[in-house]
Specification:
about 375 residues; alpha/beta; Rossmann fold; Glutathione S-transferase Yfyf (Class Pi), Chain A, domain 2; 2 domains; 6-stranded mixed sheet; 11 helices; binds adenosine-5'-triphosphate; binds magnesium ion
Length: about 375
Amino acid sequence: MKISHIKIKGFRNLKPLELKIDKDKDVFAFIGSNGHGKTNLLEAIYLCALSKSFRTRTNSDLVNFEVDFCKIECAVDMEDPKILEIIVTKEPPQKVLKVNGVKRNASDFIGVLKAVFFSPDDLSEMAFAPKLRRRYLDVMLSQLDHEYLNILLRYQEVARQRNALLKKIREKLAKKEELIFWDEQIADFGLSITQKRADLIIQLQDLINTMYKSISQTEDELKIIYQSNIGEFDDKQSFLLKMTQNIDRDIATGTTQLGPHRDDLQFLINGHDMVYFASRGEWRSLVLALKFAEIQLIENKTGEKPILLLDDVFSELDEIRQKYLFEAIKGTQTFITTTHKEFLDGLDVERVVYKVGHGEVII
Ligand SMILES: Nc1ncnc2c1ncn2[C@@H]1O[C@H](COP(=O)(O)OP(=O)(O)OP(=O)(O)O)[C@@H](O)[C@H]1O
Ligand SMILES: [Mg+2]
């Protein structure tokens, strides 16, 4: 799939912008100094794919300081072309999502445009942040499996309600028995999420291992282990029992301790946990392997290549990994930001280069 047109208005520091994207080229580079709006541009595109930002949960942050609303419009060229629109207003705080002019909820909007985003944060934080590792699974599954996204959204809502009730129980404003209603739903949705994540890991395992070997140019075996904290994936009774055993801790903390929101991934190289033994270079190879496996799996499952958003990653990669990235980009519509155009020197495909300065994007 390819984006054919982008229109942005009132978004962060970007000046009103309209870009017609040349379908015959694959790489679109945005070059500019720090703080001029490069990441903002990728963030706007990412929003059209996932309806959320990769760097804020507060919608009003997205709207330019001086205006009341922002609008992003993206035309997507695929078998059945679509126009995606996002409008965010400050007052009332609201986000409206539209597909072909018709208002849609998040679960019908997400996944129309499929995108893989890659930033220096992935490289530096994958080793330390379980949240980022969970997000890797969620972003991929949300774009691949409509049902997963629905279940995840419902699970998150139920967990919020249960946590509010836990706090009420702690303050003696509600009874423990009232939890049963929510526990049942946490177990049902939680088990479905866990099952789907476990299935995804099985599908990714070989892909990631092969890519890791090729990027790091070793014969090292990479294994991913899914760490679920709810035990057997199909055993609702034992999940409910564990929740009951945990209930006093849940009430004391006012949070739900068990469930897929606490899942994690463990990566082993030749059987050794990367968290304790891996070098920075090995983590970098892993993150690249994860991203390329994501692209590959989305293509295998949907028959369409996702678009790729690369935010200033070249400065973080050595020559071998840069070369690998350049090879992998070929044939994929890719939006790249960089501070120095020299970083694109190793890329032997035709590209369109834009300059980004003070929020303005010019060719
Ligand atoms: N809501 C907003 N309204 C106006 N300006 C904003 C808003 N949100 C962010 N900005 C500004 O946008 C500017 C550009 O941010 P961006 O992260 O896109 O820069 P960048 O070009 O990617 O820089 P770097 O090379 O350092 O990553 C920042 O100066 C920031 O203050
Ligand atoms: Mg940036």
